[in-house]
Amino acid sequence: MNKPIPNSEPEREPVALGAMDFFARSRARLGFDVPPGLYDPNIIPASGDPGTDKMLEIIAREQPVRPAAVLIAVVDHPEPTILLTQRSAHLNDHAGQIAFPGGKIDATDASPLDAALREAEEEVGLSRDFVEPIGYLDLYGTGFGFRILPTVARVRPGFALTINHSEVDDAFEVPLSFLMNPANHQLHSKEFRGMERFYYAMPFAERYIWGATAGMLRVLYERIYSS
């Protein structure tokens, strides 16, 4: 990976939110309206980065939309954490990368929420009995044609995971305070057909969290932590 780009914006002080405040803000700011851009190729998810927006416009013309859902599972410890996975190395898409539990929305799924819960059960054995869905985050587009709708959820501690090694190699938790600290949000760039586009990375110990996963975490920060 390339070196992070120095951020020219004034560094923001991390906002200290306890678990109760985080979940209260999330319930107040999120809902379950499904954005039409999840399925409509003519509606391009806004990224906030002109290069990425242009890339998504091009991808929408060249590839069919691939609706997907992920679960941003915030575990309600005294110091909350987010549950992440490491995708199996043999997968065709994003092999070995750090991800949220989730995947494509099937025709049999009642909603994007249902798809996210189903995928979390299939990938890591997270029982729905422990999950309290809170609402959808903003729609997130990728260069592979995916339109990802993340569900933010409170997860009650005490669950036991069963890893499906055909899909993921590992599951682990990262402190919410680390992921929501803007000092840990590295900005990188890469070229797409002669255009520069930017993306986030949030390295944590030996885990390299980047791309769509880091991008959705940044959106979570902007929606919940920004006043």
Short description:
The protein is an alpha+beta fold and 227 residues long.
Attribute tags:
227 residues; alpha+beta; Nucleoside Triphosphate Pyrophosphohydrolase; eight-stranded mixed β-sheet; two-stranded antiparallel ribbon; 5 helices; 10 strands; 25% helix; globular
What would you say this structure looks like, in words?
The strands form 2 sheets. Strands 1, 2, 3, 4, 5, 6, 7 and 8 form an 8-stranded mixed sheet that branches. This protein has a two-stranded antiparallel sheet with strand order 9-10. The model has no long low-confidence stretch (mean pLDDT 90). The chain has one domain: Nucleoside Triphosphate Pyrophosphohydrolase, CATH 3.90.79. It is 25% helix and 27% strand. The chain has helices spanning 19-29, 50-62, 112-124, 176-179, 211-225; strands at 66-75, 81-87, 98-99, 102-104, 131-136, 140-141, 146-155, 168-175, 186-192, 195-201. It is globular and about 45 Å long. β1 (66-75) and β2 (81-87) form a beta hairpin. It starts with 18 loop residues before the first helix and ends with a helix. The protein has 227 residues and is of the alpha+beta class. It has 5 helices and 10 strands.
